Input
Amino acid sequence: MLLMTLGCGVVANVILQGTKGHGSGWIVITTGWAFAVYIGVVVAAPFSGAHINPAVSISLAAAGKFPWAEVPMYILAQFLGAMLGAGIIWLMYKKHFDITEDRDLKLAVFCTAPAIPHYGTNLLGETVGTFVLLFAVLYFTDATISESNTVIGLGSLGALPVAFTVWGIGLSLGGTTGYAINPARDLGPRMMHAIMPISDKRDSDWGYAWVPVVGPIAGGLVAAFLFLALS
Output
């Protein structure tokens, strides 16, 4: 919920009419998403091991780092949280949705869309972006003193590496599809766009909706299998 409240929130602030952040650009969006991931990870870590992405849960299970039996419930929670966060942003920015004439921009607050529609390259973009995310996550370690194997506690700062990773993915790889790299992040809010009474909205682009679901799962699995091969 926090991931999507801040993530959809920064997109709304940048692209909807009449906001204080209108037109501030891609750097603001990628930075806002990185901070959204940081806060989501900090809050979720004590309860779920910081699983706020179905691709993460599936990939860690494939790598033997998470029980498969718990994956369905985690994915359900991730989708419900994503939908709730998207709903919060619609309520907050409703007046700005109302005065924004571009229906594509209204949809973009909720979910991703390709800069150049092409299923093959769009799927590749989501796969590569999520591969980078999960391959990095699988190699994250606690800070330790090697001689005594003593863990040096970093507290909430321990969530910074994943935020920096997402920031880097957005800046370098996000220009083709908007880097969903998270099935719940895209599909959950897309469903909210479909069912909520948004003024003068377009369709929810269901023809594209499978790409930011299949791509992240595929990229995460490739990262998991490569990690196992190299271990």
